[in-house]
Design brief:
Layout lengths: L1 E6 L8 H10 L2 E7 L3 H13 L3 E5 L11 H10 L5 E10 L7 H18 L3 E6 L2 H7 L7 E3 L6 H9 L3 E4 L22 E3 L21 H12 L3 H16 L6
Helix pairs in contact: 2-3
Protein name: YchF/TatD family DNA exonuclease
GO molecular function: DNA nuclease activity; exonuclease activity; metal ion binding
Organism: Rubrobacter tropicus
């Protein structure tokens, strides 16, 4: 069994129910839905209560940093106590595409880190072309951290490893000349997660199409081959890692 450790069920072209069903048929037994603002985080919390083997994270994406309010932060703190919410995220910094200033993004990120510390929930972190500032802000984090959709080379992997952070690998790891693919062996196996970030970043065999949770099998197969694992062995490893990171119940 595999876990899609980061997906956006509410942005897919099919219903969450159908997406989860298709994933289960492909061998993906658990799906973690990720929030990007208060409204979809609330709906994600509802999904986690309603759908078996679905969990959710609540967060405010850096793309939404400039529109959040103090009421949103209060709502996020309330959501952190909701059944089915297993993480705060995604939160972080995006210096590639976000229209908001670095200062505005960092202010929100620091608030989110503080909330995670108070709620004792792990952090799902978005970092794009902002690695140094991301790591500086995370210096105050006292909870587990995953660097979602990880992009980086030797230096970034080593710093993440030194901090004992989890590393989420999405479909872009399968793309030609991907920098992280060349340094996979530097990542601590006990901190590896696989994800889709669906509907984005479809893995190479499906590139150009909309992604879905079931497609995490392609990313897992690629990484397993690169690291010399059998597919079932790698699935067991990354499933255990996801359970540990998110605090999911043990398999019965």
């Amino acid at each position: 069994m595999l876990v899609d450790s980061h997906t956006h069920l509410l942005r897919l072209e099919i219903s969450p129910e159908d997406a989860v069903g298709e994933a289960a048929e492909a061998g993906v037994g658990i799906v973690v839905n990720i929030g990007t603002q208060i409204e979809d985080s609330r709906r994600g919390a509802e999904l986690a209560v309603r759908l078996p083997n679905v969990y959710s994270a609540a967060g405010i994406h850096p793309h939404n940093a400039g529109t959040h309010t103090s009421a949103d932060l209060e709502a996020l703190a309330e959501l952190a106590e909701s059944p089915g919410i297993v993480s705060l995220g995604e939160v972080g910094l995006d210096y590639y595409r976000s229209e908001w200033s670095k200062e505005v993004q960092r202010a929100l990120f620091e608030e989110a880190i503080s909330l995670a510390n108070d709620a004792r929930l792990p952090l799902v972190v978005h970092s794009r072309q902002a690695f140094a500032d991301t790591m500086a802000c995370l210096g105050s984090a006292r909870v587990p951290v995953v660097l979602h959709c990880f992009e980086g080379g030797d230096r970034e992997v080593r710093e993440a490893t030194e901090r004992d952070y989890y590393v989420g690998l999405a479909g872009n790891i399968t793309y030609k000349n991907n920098e992280t693919a060349r340094v996979l062996r530097l990542i601590n196996p006990d901190r590896l997660l696989v994800e889709t970030d669906a509907p984005y970043l479809s893995p190479q065999p499906l590139r150009g199409t909309k992604n879905a949770p079931k497609n995490v099998v392609h990313t897992a197969a690629f990484v397993a081959e690169r690291l010399g694992y059998e597919d079932e062995e790698f699935a067991a490893l990354t499933t255990r890692n996801a359970r540990n990171f998110y605090g999911l119940p043990p398999e019965v």
